[in-house]
UniProtKB/TrEMBL annotation:
CDD domains: ParAB_family. It comes from the Bacteria. This is ParA family protein. SUPFAM superfamilies: P-loop containing nucleoside triphosphate hydrolases. Gene3D superfamilies: P-loop containing nucleotide triphosphate hydrolases (3.40.50.300). It comes from Xaviernesmea rhizosphaerae. Coiled coil: none annotated.
Length: 218
């Protein structure tokens, strides 16, 4: 299964969401491979440090790298996670054509929603050209656990009106999700008591993983 994370809007939560799903799938015992298309290579570095033995990861700098790596990964992984970078329509379109599921992470803001809609329009173009349907979901990220802000409500309505399905889980704003990149570790192996709400973060990661599995099965 190839799952790609895309939103042409920078900072919408692609890399964080990818890392959370990678953690959940690995915790569930799946073999996971990762393709990092972001020149900063945050996810590739995190994977290499957090799971040097168990997880295969590679970087894709140019369009030709994508199919080459994905073909090789298919033989060795149950799930392949692709973290796309912002504003690269060619890399996005090529990856969509090879994906089983496209996740569009989006913060509850109108700016992120514009990026999400642009990304989903690009996906539609790929679907029309290939005459096939590619599963996709919007994933709300950085939600405030205390209150659903007006802009998050508004954006949810805008997306729902377009008949775009939301994933049946959202990602809360959690300092633990930043700490995993500070420590370059999985939240399932980090036992640092200074990581705030670690148990809740782990529970939410598994909920996200279950929601993705349900969406893939449905
Ligand atoms: N759920 C969250 N809780 C706390 N911080 C978060 C969360 N999601 C993202 N962040 C923070 O927001 C910033 C942007 O997130 P991230 O890097 O995941 O976005 P991105 O879409 O991958 O960005 P880019 O387009 O630059 O690749 C980072 O500093 C990250 O640590
Ligand atoms: Mg990123």
């Amino acid at each position: 299964m190839i799952i790609s994370f895309a939103n042409v809007k920078g900072g919408s939560g692609k890399t964080t969401s990818s890392a959370l799903l990678i953690s959940g799938l690995t915790e569930r015992g799946y073999r996971v491979a990762v393709l990092d298309c972001d020149p900063l290579l945050t996810l590739h570095d995190w994977c290499s440090t957090a799971w040097p033995e168990r997880l295969t990861s590679a970087r894709a700098d140019k369009p030709a790298d994508i199919s080459r790596h994905l073909e090789a990964f298919k033989r060795q992984a149950d799930f392949i996670i692709v973290d796309l970078s912002a504003a690269t329509d060619v890399m996005n379109a090529l990856t969509f054509a090879l994906s089983d599921f496209v996740v569009v992470p989006m913060q509850g803001s109108a700016v992120d929603a514009r990026g999400a809609i642009h990304t989903l329009n690009l996906l539609k173009l790929v679907e029309d050209n290939r005459r096939m349907v590619i599963k996709s979901s919007v994933l709300l990220t950085r939600l405030n656990p205390m209150v659903l802000t007006n802009s998050a409500k508004h954006v949810s309505q805008v997306i729902s009106k377009q008949n775009i399905p939301f994933l049946d889980a959202a990602i809360l704003e959690r300092s633990a999700y930043r700490d995993m990149f500070t420590k370059m570790a999985s939240l399932f192996s980090a036992e640092d008591p200074r990581i705030h709400n670690l148990d809740k973060a782990r529970r939410d990661i598994l909920c996200l993983t279950d929601a993705v599995e349900r969406r893939l099965a449905g």
